[in-house]
Amino acid sequence: xxxxxxxxxxxxxxxxxxxxxxxxxxxxxxxxxxxxxxxxxxxxxxxxxxxxxxxxxxxxxxxxxxxxxxxxxxxxxxxxxxxxxxxxxxxxxxxxxxxxxxxxxxxxxxxxxxxxxxxxxxxxxxxxxxxxxxxxxxxxxxxxxxxxxxxxxxxxxxxxxxxxxxxxxxxxxxxxxxxxxxxxxxxxxxxxxxxxxxxxxxxxxxxxxxxxxxxxxxxxxxxxxxxxx
Length: 229
Prior knowledge:
Elements: E1 4-8, H1 27-39, E2 43-47, H2 68-74, H3 77-82, E3 99-102, H4 108-111, H5 116-127, E4 131-135, E5 158-159, H6 164-170, H7 180-186, E6 190-191, E7 202-205, E8 208-211, H8 217-228
Parallel strand pairs: 1-2, 1-3, 3-4, 4-8, 5-6
Antiparallel strand pairs: 7-8
Helix pairs in contact: 1-2, 1-8
């Protein structure tokens, strides 16, 4: 049977601490996953915490993140329309999906953690053995997700995600609302990162797959696809 993947994107377009500073979806983190899953023949649905439009992070539209994959999506009106009409979580039945995959961009720090609907879908997919994936800041979507027994999904599990060092090097450490690397470890996760910043790094722990940064998007999605296949 055809595998079905739920891709999660943000609705936020600016930093809370500075509304004049734009942010949004890091486009290549979506497109690399979409390309990999499409090549495997998977069905894909895009969801966001509030449904509707997902804005783009302006910096993701610049080299090196604005690569062939991102450009092909950005210049395709049909693909861009998918980001104007994302589903909200509540109408979705988790049983319709074999995997959930959280994309990133700093915007997700603001709206992923508080989405009860996304937490429900993630918990249900994970507990029946489906795949939970996240790349870069996407692991913010796992911060507050608990299992049926009340424990954090990430507790005792190996994972990675955008590091605090990378926040500093990206020049946004004064803009982000919290240190997610630190916070995920407070939830009991075994966090690790690559020796060098911004290089591809993906971690698989059972049915949890995480990638560290935008450069990890293809590797992370490939590992998710391998588990699904």
